[in-house]
Design a protein that fits this description.
The protein is built from 28 helices and no strands. The protein is mainly α. It has 2 domains: 299 residues, MetI-like (MetI-like fold); 220 residues, MetI-like (MetI-like fold).
């Protein structure tokens, strides 16, 4: 009987185990959904949205480029054989290359100054560099119109100093385009350079100098080759963005300063030749994608790829430099690798160049003069009062706030879920999915605007809040995915694993442990999403219509067709919004760093 009792107990234990197994099936189902393959479900909403709102319009644009009624290569033949279009395309490539070279020359001293100064000043410099990126492109273009105009601040200063007797033409020509574009693109060059420079061991430079090399030789032959990945990344990024830029050349350039994207805009809005415009857009898109592929290959060469290992070519340069050092005599006194005066002076001059156009709006918006003049003869709040009493300005502001708020909420939710799925998930085609989600930030905005307008017109979404929100999600989603993904990768996963080992479900462990850690990143992504929508000009030009005019669209019309200092007051308010959002982002990041410093993980 004992044997039977043991067998019975064994059978009872097996039955209990079976019953337990049955009871935990729902939990296993949830766990499977949250497994590395199941996390694809978190990416699906963002992927579906971008596929419908962005992917399908781009595909239809490609189809349209071959003709609507009959497929042919006529549009491509016309775009590639027309002498004027070729000249415009080549001049656009030259403009992008020259802007890139100028940004590299001006941005390198700033990035170098940021790594050579104290941590407090590094943070100040970083904020001063980032602030223009958070300021509307339209506002900055308008600032240069005030500075470079015939009666602008620079001409007045030159006449007042006696250097010239009459105003010179600084605006509505190539000079104005170059100045405006370099001002906008500089931060995109400085930040990759700064990131690359932070990874350089400065002791290598000091060792070269101690071996007898001069300051300039050590800087040129050791430091610069080690920052080549940042130079390549920043240069290609600036070149790609400059290639498809629209607002600044359109506002600051003259009749001869036509870029390829401006030519596409003319085919859509003036000639109404959609098929030719689509073919031109595809040509520019292909050129951009080729550059993007080159960009990622150079990033991989730099050691930023999946392997995370530096390649051999920087080391070869370093070895060659080391052999050359012994034959060089000191040319500068010990101290900085470059001249101890040139780098700080150049760096701070470039920073002043970045900030000055933004600061001039504060006195201009408070001017008592009936027209724009600097310095103001008196101070008044009349232009702010005019803004708050004009229904057209207030209606446009309210539309922008509503669209930006809806865009921020939707983009933050969908982008955060997608970032979690991409970072934590492992599924076939994950890199392809990530590339598609980020691609709208690389494709020229005008191409996206043309494609989306062509699609939305069929569904009567042009001139509606819904259409603007959907279109702005195309701009905002990639930003949220990038920022939140970066925050997730920087979080230590061991506390979450410890919580799960103690019995917490994957969802509870993530919500209680990891979500608070990445909260500052999510907030920063939300700020970026809001500004991406609030500051957009190009999509608004195509999709606002007459019933959903946004504030940037109203400002665009005011800049092009009016001479009204009210725009200075509106620009000041937009700058203040950017400063508040930037300060909130910095505060959230500071609180996160303080909180993470208080948490200590004890290895088991």
């Amino acid at each position: 009987m004992r044997g039977f009792e043991v067998e019975d107990k064994t059978m009872s234990a097996g039955a209990a185990a079976a019953r337990t197994h049955v009871r935990v099936q729902p939990r296993n189902f949830v766990a499977n959904l949250l497994s590395r393959h199941g996390l694809l479900l978190l990416v699906a909403p963002a992927l579906l949205l971008l596929g419908v709102v962005y992917g399908v319009p781009i595909f239809r644009l490609l189809v349209t480029s071959f003709g609507v009624n009959e497929w042919s290569l006529h549009n491509y033949q016309e775009a590639l054989t027309d002498d004027y279009m070729w000249r415009v395309l080549l001049s656009t490539l030259r403009l992008a290359a020259e802007v890139t070279a100028m940004c590299l020359i001006l941005g390198y001293p700033v990035a170098y100054l940021m790594i050579r100064t104290s941590p407090r000043w590094t943070q100040i410099l970083a904020i001063l560099v980032i602030l223009p990126m958070w300021t509307s492109v339209l506002v900055r273009a308008y600032a240069w119109m005030v500075l470079l105009g015939r009666n602008g601040i620079i001409n007045q200063a030159l006449i007042g100093s006696g250097l010239i007797s009459e105003p010179i033409q600084l605006l509505y020509n190539g000079f104005g385009v170059y100045v405006g574009m370099v001002h906008i693109m500089l931060p995109y060059m400085i930040l990759p350079l700064f990131t690359a420079m932070k990874r350089v061991d400065l002791r290598l430079v000091d060792a070269a100098r101690s071996a007898g090399a001069g300051g300039f030789a050590a800087f040129a032959l050791v430091f610069v080759p080690l920052t080549a990945p940042g130079i390549a990344a920043g240069s290609l990024l600036v070149f790609i963005l400059s290639l498809g830029f629209f607002v600044t050349p359109a506002l600051l350039g003259g009749p001869a300063d036509v870029t390829f994207v401006m030519l596409i805009d003319r085919q859509v809005n003036e000639s109404l030749n959609w098929e030719l415009a689509a073919a031109m857009a595809v040509i520019l898109l292909v050129a951009t994608l080729i550059l993007v592929v080159l960009y990622w290959k150079l990033v991989d060469v730099s050691g930023q790829g999946s392997a995370g290992r530096p390649r051999a070519w920087p080391r070869r340069n370093l070895r060659a430099a080391t052999h050359a050092l012994g034959r060089l005599q000191p040319t500068f006194s010990p101290g900085s690798p470059a001249s101890p005066l040139v780098t700080p002076v150049l760096g701070w001059t470039v920073v002043a160049f970045l900030i000055a156009p933004i600061l001039i709006f504060f006195p201009l918006s408070l001017s008592a003069s009936p027209f724009l003049e600097f310095p103001p003869r008196g101070f008044s709040l009349q232009w702010f009062q005019n803004y708050f009493s004009r229904p057209d300005w207030l209606a446009a502001t309210w539309v922008s706030i509503k669209v930006a708020t809806f865009t921020m909420i939707a983009a933050t939710l969908l982008g955060t879920l997608a970032a979690i799925g991409l970072v934590r998930g492992r599924f076939p085609g994950s890199r392809l999915v990530a590339g598609f989600l980020i691609s709208p930030s690389i494709v020229p905005t005008l191409i996206t605007a043309v494609a989306v307008y062509f699609q939305f017109a069929r569904f009567q979404l042009v001139g509606s809040i819904t259409g603007l929100v959907l279109a702005h999600l195309v701009l905002a989603l990639p930003l949220v995915v990038v920022v939140v993904s970066g925050a997730l990768r920087s979080v230590d996963i061991r506390p979450e694993q410890a919580a799960r080992s103690l019995g917490a479900t994957p969802v509870i462990a993530f919500l209680k442990i990891t979500l608070p850690a990445i909260k500052p990143g999510i907030l920063t992504a939300a700020f970026f999403a809001f500004l991406a929508s609030f500051d957009d000009v190009v999509l608004a030009l195509f999709l606002s219509g007459t019933s959903a005019t946004t504030l940037p669209k109203r400002m665009w019309d005011g800049i092009r067709f009016e001479i009204d200092p009210t725009i200075a007051a509106v620009s000041t308010l937009m700058i203040m919004v950017s400063i508040v959002l930037l300060a909130a982002s910095q505060l959230a990041s500071l609180r996160s760093r303080r909180a993470s410093g208080e948490i200590k993980v004890v290895p088991l």
